[in-house]
Design brief:
Layout: H1 5-20, H2 22-32, H3 38-70, H4 74-93, H5 104-110, H6 119-124, H7 127-139, H8 143-165, H9 167-215
Helix pairs in contact: 1-7, 1-8, 1-9, 2-8, 2-9, 3-7, 3-8, 4-7, 4-9
Length: 216
């Protein structure tokens, strides 16, 4: 195995697992599916993970086209993505998963197809995950690395499905304190990844500015 594949795979796994945050999604998932049978919850979890995976794959493969179409530089996107991911990590560090609060009437509105919105998008596949997918696809220099990225994303959503499927038991097992501790740890990891992403975008821009300044 290429020596660069394992670190890249580890980066993909940790970043996507923290951004998808299936453990933090469990309480919201249980709230939105309150009163439903285990079979109905399983069906919703399956659709949500499939929708999230397909959405992310679209951005993984269409990322370069979007860059060219809108005239966006990769480095600029890294900076923006780093800021978005840092914000998500900062919220997780304070045990705040999302600012979205669902009221009873909103839950009833989403009950028909909550697997797409808000569970699939933006909870399991939000702007942070999309930005991370596009940036990592840009970093994947070989077909092996691209394959690892796609495989890890698929693995993450398979794990997410099983976590949501067992959410009732896991919430009782982990408890609120355990869930908060785990969320803070994942938030810290995510903030470190965000800083690396931000720096990797700023550094080439600063180098170009210095070179242009030296040429005058």
């Amino acid at each position: 195995m290429n020596s660069s594949l394992f670190p890249f795979a580890l980066l993909c796994f940790t970043s996507f697992f923290t951004l998808t945050n299936p453990l933090g999604t469990m309480p919201v998932f249980l709230t939105m599916t309150h009163g439903m049978s285990d079979k109905e919850r399983q069906s919703i979890a399956r659709r949500a993970t499939i929708v999230s995976f397909i959405t992310l794959m679209v951005f993984v493969f269409a990322g370069q086209f979007l860059f060219k179409f809108f005239g966006i530089s990769t480095n600029g996107f890294r900076i923006a993505g780093g800021v978005i991911i840092f914000k998500i990590g900062f919220d997780m560090l304070q045990a705040r998963y999302t600012a979205m609060k669902l009221k009873d009437e909103e839950i009833k509105t989403y009950a028909d197809d909550i697997s797409i919105t808000p569970l699939g998008i933006p909870m399991l596949c939000g702007p942070g995950a999309i930005a991370n997918a596009i940036v990592l696809m840009q970093d994947a220099q070989s077909y092996e690395m691209k394959g690892v990225l796609i495989g890890v994303i698929a693995l993450i959503y398979v794990i997410t499905f099983f976590i949501l499927r067992a959410s009732t038991r896991l919430v009782r097992l982990i408890g609120e304190t355990g869930n908060n501790v785990m969320m803070r740890l994942m938030g810290l990891i995510l903030m470190v990844i965000a800083v690396e992403c931000f720096v990797s975008g700023v550094k080439p821009i600063l180098v170009d500015i210095v070179k242009q300044g030296a040429s005058f």
